[in-house]
UniProtKB/TrEMBL annotation:
Name listed for the protein in its UniProt record: DUF2200 domain-containing protein
Top-rank taxon, per record: Bacteria
Pfam families according to UniProt: DUF2200 (PF09966)
Length: 113
């Protein structure tokens, strides 16, 4: 089991916020991307952050967007579409979306609209 599975989402979320804000994007846009992927609205996201939910539990409770399989590309030198472990793939989907947001990609492209 990868160490990231037991890391709390709340410990990584501020890093996501910092990453996108440094590139001129907003926390609201980040939250929109997270909601698109996981189905967690603002209240549910806030609850997970307050509860210290691990990535494993976070994605266990998520209703992954049916279009998530359209997320392709490389994160940390690995193609997300080729990751065998389902949980690791979901975590990398989120990483890829955050990367796309930080790189200035339009929201309709990030959300696979």
């Amino acid at each position: 089991m990868s160490r990231i599975f037991t890391v709390t989402f709340a410990s990584v979320y501020p890093l996501y916020v910092t990453k996108v804000e440094k590139k001129g994007r907003t926390k609201a846009e980040l939250d929109q991307v997270i909601e698109w992927l996981t189905g967690f609205g603002a209240a549910a996201l806030k609850d997970h952050l307050a509860a210290g939910t691990t990535f494993e539990d976070f994605f266990a409770e998520a209703e992954l967007n049916p279009q998530a399989s359209a997320i392709t590309g490389v994160v940390c030198g690995v193609r997300v579409e080729n990751i065998d472990d389902p949980l690791m793939q979901k975590i990398r989907y989120l990483d890829k979306l955050v990367d796309e947001l930080a790189k200035g990609k339009p929201m309709d492209k990030i959300l696979r609209a």
